[in-house]
Amino acid sequence: MSELSGLRILISGASVAGPAAAYWLNRYGCAVTVVERAPSIRPGGQAIDVRGPALDVAARMGVLERLRAKAVGMRGMSVVDADGAELYRSTERTVSGGDLSSPDLEILRDDLALALVEAGGAEIEYLFDDSIAALDQDADEVRVTFDSGLRRPFDLVVGADGLHSNVRRLSFGPTERFLRDLGTCTAVCTVPNFLGLDHWQVMHQLPGGGLGGAMVMSARDNTEARVYLMFDPETPLSYDHRDVPAQKELVARALAGGGWHLPRLLELMREAPDFHFDAAAQIHLDSWSRGRVVLLGDAAYCGSPLSGQGTTMAMVGAYVLAGELKAAAGDHTAAFAAYEDDLRDYVTANQEMAVWNMAARRAQIADEASGSAEAADTRAAADIESFAKIVSSYQLRPY
Ligand SMILES: Cc1cc2nc3c(=O)[nH]c(=O)nc-3n(C[C@H](O)[C@H](O)[C@H](O)COP(=O)(O)OP(=O)(O)OC[C@H]3O[C@@H](n4cnc5c(N)ncnc54)[C@H](O)[C@@H]3O)c2cc1C
User: Which residue range is the domain that position 323 belongs to?
Assistant: First the structure.
């Protein structure tokens, strides 16, 4: 009989943290159900990075080679002015992935999510197009009511449902209490590769010293492109994070009048098959669990896209959470405390790095835009070194 045989676990969210946790919990003998609000694994999202200890997690899950085969394989980046003239070029780093010589893996979010779901196998139950409506826990179990009306009891509930986590709202309180806005927003969507990019990124920064602008990168072997549209709102935005047309309108208004291909990109955004928009924000909680409910990934400790470490923290967190449950033979109180104890320092270092990255990126932009390639490269090399130290400061332990 497996270590956690019979433990009934519900995970909310099927992106990165959820399927990774499902894999490990199933492997340790739990009966795992994953509920996802979207009708299937959600398409879209930017190229995200699997780094350092998350590469070890992927290897232990047996998916590392598959992920490497799906990696975006960028060769470099250019920075262009409003007329498209090149101001800066690098074949050593990219905006989205950082140092190209590192073993880190950059992959489209949907490719990663699918690989993690498939690694888990058929024993894991997926409930798509549904969401948790109510959680009622006592000393013995958590009684869950779903939006669909389904009611089921579980031993534990894991909230892996992202920055705007539903589980966190139901068990910890309103999002605003835990969310720290970093003052910049990004929209990501898929567009045709109309620039003919070959494993390449092109960035155009708006004047003014902020992070606003657009970046286009080829994707899926140049058959399509992903566009990032960025702006710094003057005051924190208030928007419905599920109202896509309103979000598109916000982006279009913020970037109206921009140069380079911005007008075309905004047009393409309106028809894009996928769209992800959010303010860069972090989640800070005093504790990641409440009784039988525990949070994981962005829901617990979002570092924001500016950390470049959201995916790594989600995958490592999934491995540690499941591993600690196994080590504690299912004693969730001990396991949740150990999970948090083990990861807190790493999370804090990465959240601090996001703030530092934002300042570093502004300085890099100024160097790139001034055509000072040497200054940009020297600064980038120093930033990459500090970043790599933090990424590798956590080592996986065996469970
Ligand atoms: C469509 C999409 C696009 C993204 N694009 C980017 C990007 O461009 N740049 C970037 O830095 N990060 C992006 N992210 C976030 C990135 O994936 C995470 O920062 C990181 O990988 C950690 O993953 P996570 O699993 O903790 O959270 P997330 O990847 O945010 O996943 C949360 C999952 O929970 C689901 N969910 C939400 N609410 C409910 C609910 N009520 N019930 C059930 N399920 C629910 C969501 O649909 C999603 O599948 C994106 C996420 C998504 C879902």
Answer: 8-71+105-177+282-356
Closest CA to ligand 1's atom 52: 45
pLDDT digits (tens, 9 = 90+) for 192-233: 999 999 999 999 998 877 788 999 999 999 999 999 999 998
Q: What is the CATH number of the domain that holds 299?
A: 3.50.50.60
64 assigned to some structural domain: yes
- Model pLDDT, residue 2: 62
Domain count, the chain: 1
Which residues touch 205 (CB under 8 Å, ≥6 apart)?
79, 211, 212, 213, 365, 368, 369
Domain assignment of residue 83, yes or no: no
Domain presence at residue 230: no
Testing ligand 1's pocket by substitution, the residue of 10, 12, 15 carrying the most ligand atoms inside 8 A of its CB is: 15
Taking each helix axis from N to C end, the angle separating 244-255 and 262-271, rounded to the nearest 10 degrees, works out to 170
Sequence letter at residue 40? S
- CA 8 to ligand 1 center in whole angstroms: 24
Cα-to-centroid distance, 235 and ligand 1 (Å): 24
pLDDT of residue 1 exceeding 60: no
Q: From the CB of 168, is ligand 1 less than 6 Å away?
A: no
**309 lies in a domain?**
yes
Tell me the C-alpha to C-alpha distance, in Å, between residue 367 and each of 61, 89, 374, 379.
Answer: 41, 12, 9, 9
pLDDT tens, position by position, 305-342: 888 899 999 999 999 999 999 999 999 999 999 999 99
Give the nearest ligand 1 atom to 163 CA. Answer: 30
According to DSSP, the residues that pair with 157 across neighbouring strands are 10, 293
Distance from C-alpha of 354 to C-alpha of 348, rounded to nearest angstrom: 10
Atom 28 (ligand 1) nearest CA: 162
Using most ligand atoms within 8 A of CB, pick from 12, 109, 110 the residue to mutate for ligand 1: 109
**What's the 43 CA to ligand 1 centre distance in angstroms?**
11
| Residue 93 Cα to ligand 1 middle (Å) | 25
* Residue scoring higher pLDDT (194 or 384): 194
